[in-house]
Design brief:
Shape: globular
CATH topology of the largest domain: inorganic pyrophosphatase (n-terminal core)
Mean pLDDT: 97
Helix content: 25-40%
CATH superfamily of the largest domain: inorganic pyrophosphatase (n-terminal core)
Order of helices and strands: HEEHEHEEHHHHHEEHHEEHEEHH
Largest sheet: 6 strands, mixed
Distance between the termini: 36 Å
CATH architecture of the largest domain: Alpha-Beta Complex
Radius of gyration: 19 Å
Number of strands: 11
Structural class: alpha/beta
Strand order of the largest sheet: 6-7-8-9-11-10
Low-confidence stretches: none
Bound molecules: guanosine-5'-monophosphate, manganese (II) ion
Length: about 325
């Protein structure tokens, strides 16, 4: 899975993990980095190895592996410091992912489909396609539901096709409790996070009506003051798109090693291309991310200069 895994990365990895274990394979899930607290309830997370905390063990597993499934990313650098080790591993590498422009030569086999709602949906297809429909139990259903739910904005994005709903119906037949998944992911934060969101909306948001764009920046001091941890800023960018007429939302967070961007759009404005062109990033047409090594002020100013060129596209 990619670094700082989200619900879909963790859900697809754990869904596949439980499925393959059920078929008596020897399976290990490795995350390149730590992950958000709101994912820790997922069945199997206690067995996931954080590469940054367990380098030796991870490398042994990686080098001994016969097959490596690369889930919810399509280019090795999305796994941060794991990237070179992944490239050097001799195992057969299988890509299952729904992001744009996969780095095909890095993988031996793969399914890359940008029309898919989530990697979890693709793991579901993989299980069904392998003729193992009956092995889908509540544990697998819970993992897969989590990723589809988070990647479709709770089943609202255009990627939520009829087959997504059919899949959810099939998962529900296992008897898993979908309301519990929503509670774990969306209603399980500490007070400080909500106070922080209030602060950010009031003091760190700028609306550029001329470009139908809303911009937010979060400084290191803000993160420190509100004790913001991995995962606490997830979803913040979506507030920007709730303003009438806004087609493009961008948030930049001053992380230790870099300034990390999240981009979201509604309609035809392609934020995957925007992130690739200007911020060394990528993702999907309506949701992408990127980075910058300059200061938070510089990167915000740079954004405001670039956006001028997109005026026509955003109107
Ligand atoms: P988020 O804003 O939630 O971190 O990411 C939105 C989408 O863009 C996710 O599907 C994520 O995998 C992808 N993404 C985020 N950051 C990057 C990046 O730096 N490079 C690429 N290629 N994709 C990214
Ligand atoms: Mn995904």
């Amino acid at each position: 899975m990619h670094q700082k895994p989200d619900g879909d990365a963790m859900g697809s990895a754990l869904g596949l993990f439980h499925f393959l274990k059920g078929l008596n394979h020897d399976v290990t899930v490795i995350s390149p980095t730590n992950w958000a607290d709101f994912l820790c309830w997922m069945p199997g997370t206690q067995e996931v190895i954080n590469f940054e905390m367990n380098k030796e063990k991870s490398l042994k597993i990686l080098n001994d592996a016969a097959v490596i499934f690369c889930l919810d990313f399509n280019i090795f650098h999305r796994t941060k410091h794991l990237a070179t080790h992944l490239a050097n591993a001799i195992a057969v590498k299988v890509l299952i992912d729904h992001h744009q422009q996969p780095d095909e030569p890095s993988f031996n086999y793969g399914i890359s489909d940008t029309k898919k709602s989530s990697t979890c949906e693709m793991i579901y297809d993989f299980i069904i396609g392998s003729g193992n429909d009956k092995s889908i139990n509540t544990t697998i259903a819970t993992c897969l539901y989590t990723g589809v739910m988070t990647d479709t904005g709770s089943f609202r994005f255009p990627s939520t096709t009829a087959s997504v709903h059919r899949m959810i119906a099939r998962l529900k037949e296992t008897g898993f409790e979908h309301d519990q998944v929503h509670n774990h992911i969306y209603d399980n934060f500490l007070e400080n996070r909500l106070r922080f969101i209030g602060f950010a909306l009031l003091n760190r948001m700028e609306v550029l009506y001329e470009y139908n764009t809303a911009l937010m920046y979060i400084t290191k001091q803000d993160l420190y003051k509100y004790d913001i941890k991995t995962g606490d800023t997830e979803g913040l960018v979506n507030y920007l798109l709730t303003i009438q007429g806004i087609k493009f939302g961008a948030i930049v967070i001053d992380r230790d090693e870099e300034r990390k961007w999240s981009f979201r759009s509604k309609g035809s404005f392609d934020v995957n291309q925007f992130a690739r062109n200007h911020f060394e990033g990528g993702g999907h047409a309506n949701a992408s991310g990127g980075r910058s090594s300059s200061s938070i002020e510089q990167t915000v100013n740079h954004f405001k200069e670039i956006i001028i060129k997109y005026k026509n596209q955003l109107q």
